[in-house]
Design brief:
Layout (H helix, E strand, L loop, with lengths): L3 E5 L3 E6 L8 H14 L4 E6 L6 H16 L3 E6 L2 H9 L8 E2 L2 H8 L12 E2 L2 E2 L12
Parallel strand pairs: 2-3, 3-4, 4-5
Antiparallel strand pairs: 1-2, 6-7
Length: 141
């Protein structure tokens, strides 16, 4: 198994996982992905899952791959394009742990530091920010 991969600028390395990971290919897939994560020059590695589903074997591979990424000072992000795949991440509560996005664009945008990402102000309602509590006191300077 040799996953398709490409660099997106100096910050992102994308690996496309287009096959369903099961018990028969788990070790081979994990070995290939670990090698790519260890040798990536970019700080953020994005696993773009284009396979129609994610299995428990695939989830285990991604969790172990996250450990490998952290050990090599990399950040791992996952793109789950298919609704069924996103549902599996949601019900297993791994969305935040594996930093799951619904598209490659979202994963790239969310991986940028806040100093690079555009600031989106909170919408205002009745003269106060939407996240501000009613009656909250503010210090005046």
């Amino acid at each position: 198994m040799s996953p398709t991969n490409h660099r997106l600028g100096p910050r992102h390395f994308v690996v496309v996982l287009d096959e369903v990971v099961d018990l028969d290919n788990e070790a081979t897939v994990e070995s290939a992905l670990r090698r790519l994560v260890r040798t990536a020059r970019e700080r953020t590695v994005v696993i773009d899952i284009t396979a129609p589903i994610i299995t428990s074997a695939g989830l285990h591979v991604l969790l172990r791959l996250r450990r490998t990424a952290l050990a090599h000072a990399r950040t791992l992000r996952v793109v789950a394009r298919e609704p069924t795949t996103r549902w599996v991440f949601r019900v297993t509560r791994l969305e935040q742990t594996l930093k799951v996005s619904h598209s490659l664009e979202q994963a790239l945008r969310e991986s940028l530091p806040s100093s690079v990402a555009p600031h989106v102000p909170h919408p205002r309602r009745n003269g106060r920010a939407a996240d501000e509590r009613p009656g909250a006191r503010h210090s005046r300077r």
